[in-house]
C-alpha cells in the first residue's frame, strides 16, 4: 500500500531551521546565499512556469473536448456524412483541432522539461554557488573535504523538505 507522507508546518519549520543552523555552523555566512538562491529565485520561477503549464493544460483540455464532440457528431451522423460525401470536410475539421491540441501539448512538454531541468540542476547550482561564495568571502575560508561533504549531505537532506514545501503551502 502507498503511504502518504504528511508533514505539519511546525515539523517542516523545525526540520528546515535545524539543518540550516548546521549549514550556518559549517559554512558561516555563505549559506545565506543558498537560502536566497533557492527561496527567492528558484521557487518563484518554478511557480511561474507551473502556472503557465497549468493554463496551457486547461486550453488543451478544451481542445480535447472540442475534438471529442466533433468525433461524436461524426459517429452519430456517419450515414449522412457518407451519403453526401462530406468525409474530407469532417476529417479536415478533426485534424485542425488535433493540430492545435498537439501544438499546446508540445508547449506543455517544453515547460515540463524546463521545470525538470531546473529542479535537477538546482542542487548543483546551490552547492556550487554556496561553495564559491564561501571561498570568495574570505581568504581564510578553505573548502576542506570535511566541510564540503558535510555541507553536501546537509543540502541533500534539505532537498526533501523543500520538495514538500509546495504541498505544505497548498494543503
Report on the architecture of this protein.
It contains 5 helices and no strands. By secondary structure, it is mainly alpha-helical. The longest helix has 51 residues, at 87-137. The two termini are 22 Å apart. The model has no long low-confidence stretch (mean pLDDT 80).
How is this fold's topology laid out?
Layout: H1 9-27, H2 31-76, H3 78-84, H4 87-137, H5 145-170
Helix pairs in contact: 1-5, 2-4, 4-5
Number of strands: 0
Return Rg in Å.
25 Å
Q: Which bin fits the share of residues in helices?
A: over 70%
Mean pLDDT: 80
Largest sheet: none
Task: Give the low-pLDDT segments.
Answer: none
- N to C succession of SSEs: HHHHH
How far apart the termini lie comes to 22 Å
Q: Strand content of the residues, in percent?
A: under 5%
Tell me, briefly, the overall form: rod-shaped
Structural category: mainly alpha
Our count of helices gives 5
Short account of what is shown:
The chain contains five helices and no strands.
